[in-house]
Amino acid sequence: MQITLLTIGKTDNTQLNKLIEDYKKRLVHYIKFEFEIIPDIKNSKNLSEALQKQKEGEQILAKVSKSDRLILLDENGKQFDSITFSNYLQKHMNSGLKNLIFVIGGPYGFSDALYQRSDGKLSLSKMTFSHQMVRLFFIEQLYRGFTILRNEPYHHR
């Protein structure tokens, strides 16, 4: 199985990028992982929120095939503790799924078309985080989930 994280817009913070790169390298030991950044919509300041969400949604959906499982990182999604999340990952790996895609949307969230196509929603917290921070938190939780599955000590350091 491959896990893909799709995000809108790049991260300008070099310290965050270094941490994200560190966890991406760690994940290679457990699973095929792809982190893909979809460029920001050009001239988005001239677009309504709805139109910007629609255009971002179209770009995201262009990256998704029918057989992919699509999970939106959404504030109204299901919340897991780290152990339950690791079990969630294991369940997907056991299902024979080829690609599990998680999506971090743009500043206004997701389009209706993305919600309709999605196979679920996941929330990291009831708190609000910047989209750049969510990237790091999510990739770290993926790594933590795989260390839990392998019974490695990272989870309890």
Question: Can you put this structure into words, describing what you see?
Answer:
This is Ribosomal RNA large subunit methyltransferase H. By secondary structure, this protein is an alpha/beta fold. It has one domain: SPOUT methyltransferase, trefoil knot domain (Alpha/beta knot, 3-Layer(aba) Sandwich), CATH 3.40.1280.10. The chain is built from five helices and five strands. The protein has helices spanning 14-27, 49-61, 82-94, 112-117, 131-149, and strands at residues 2-8, 32-38, 69-79, 99-104, 120-123. A five-stranded parallel sheet has the order 2-1-4-3-5. α1 (14-27) runs parallel beside α5 (131-149) and α3 crosses α5 (131-149). The longest helix is centred in the last third of the chain and has 19 residues, at 131-149. 25% of the residues are buried.
